[in-house]
Amino acid sequence: MLGHLPYALAAWLILWGLYGIVTSRNLIHLVICLAVLQTSTYLILLAIGYKAGAVAPIYADMPAGTVAVDPVVQALMLTDIVVEATVVALLLAIAVQAHERGGSLDPARLCALKG
Amino acid sequence: MKARLVLFGIGALGFAAVWFAGARKLDPMGSYHGAYGEILNAVSVPERHSTNVVSAVNFDYRGLDTLGEEFILYISVVAVAAILRKQKDEEEEDEDEAPTQLREAPDSDAVRLFGVGLVPVTVIFGLYMISHGSVSPGGGFQGGVVLATVPLVVYLCAGAKTYLRIAPPALAKGGEGLGAAGYALIGCLGVLAGKKFLENVVPLGTPGEAWSAGTITLLNLTVGVAVGTGFVELISSFVEELLRKAEK
C-alpha cells in the first residue's frame, strides 16, 4: 500500500489545486493554485521512473553498470517545469492586464466587457 | 459560491473514485521495469561520453524535443512582451487611478550587502551549471534560470532603473533570439557533416570533463543563453510595465 502513496499524493495535490482555483478570489492566487496542481505531474513522473535501491542517473563518480533510475522521465520532468514556468509567466501577464483594464484582481468582478 | 463548492465536491468525488480505480492496479513505486531507461543508462557514457544521462537524453537522444521546448519558451516570452507592451489607448484612460508606487532602492543596508555578496556567487554557480551540464546535475535550463536571477537581485537592491541599465531589454531580446537560433544551427552541423539533424558530430572528449560529450555541451551553452536572456526578458516586461505606470 505504501508503494501507491505517490499516486495518492498526486491526486491530493490535483484536488487541492482545483479547490483553490474554484474558490479563488484573486487572479494571482489562482495562478499559484494552478502551479500547485501541476506539481502533481512531477510526483507521478518521478514515481513511475523510480527503481528500489537505485541512484540518480549521473555516472560522474560511480562505476558503469550501477543501477540508476529512469533518466527519460527525469528529462520529461524538466520539460514539464519549463512549460509550467512559461504558463505561469503568461497568466501573470494576463492578470496584470486584467487589473489594468478592469481595476480588480477578483475574477468575479471581471465580467464587464468593453469593446 | 456555495453552488460552486457543491459542484466541485461532486466532481472531486468522481475524480477520486476514477483515480482510485486506476491507481489500484498500477505497480507500486520502486518496481520499475522499463527497458528504454536501462538501455540509456548503459550506453550514455560509452556512446556519448556524457556522465549525466538526463542531459544526454535531453540534448542528444531526444534533442529534437528540446528544440521544440526551447521554442515554447521563446514564444511565451514573445507573448508576454506582446501582452504587456505599451498600448495605444493607454494614455487616455486610467486618469483617475492613483499612481503605483515605484520600487526605488531600499533604505536597508542589509539588503544591499546581501545582494552584493549574492551576485558573484550566483554568476559563478550559473556558469558552472551551464558548462558542466554533461557531467553533473544541471545544464542549460537550470543554469540559465540561476543566471537570470542576478538582475533580479540587482532589482531588489538598487531599484528598477539600475535593473534596466545592467540588463538592457535590447540585449536580452538579442540573446534570446541568438540562443534559440544557435540550437538549430548546431543541429545543422550534423546535416553539414552528411549525417542527421542534431546528430552528435563534434569530438566527444574524455567523459567527466567539462568539454566533453560533443554537441551536448554546445547545446547546453546555447540553451543557457536562451533561457537566461529569456527569463530576463520576461522580468523586464513586468518591470517596464511598472515603470510606465509610475510615470503617469
Secondary-structure map:
The complex is a heterodimer of chains A (115) and B (248).
Chain A: H1 5-23, H2 27-49, H3 71-102
Helix pairs in contact in A: 1-2, 2-3
Chain B: H1 2-24, H2 35-48, H3 53-61, H4 63-83, H5 109-131, H6 140-158, H7 160-166, H8 169-192, H9 215-247
Structure in words:
The complex is a heterodimer of chains A (115) and B (248). Chain A is built from three helices and no strands. With 115 residues, chain A is mainly α. In chain A, helix 1 runs antiparallel to helix 2 and helix 2 runs antiparallel to helix 3. The relative contact order of chain A is 0.14. The mean pLDDT of chain A is 86. With 248 residues, chain B is mainly alpha-helical. Chain B is 70% helix and 0% strand. Chain B has nine helices and no strands. Mean pLDDT of chain B is 83; it is low at 92-100. Classes of the chains: A mainly alpha (115), B mainly alpha (248). At the A-B interface, helix 1, helix 2 and helix 3 of A face helix 1, helix 2, helix 3, helix 4 and helix 9 of B.
Write a brief caption for the model.
The complex is a heterodimer of chains A (115) and B (248). With 115 residues, chain A is mainly α.
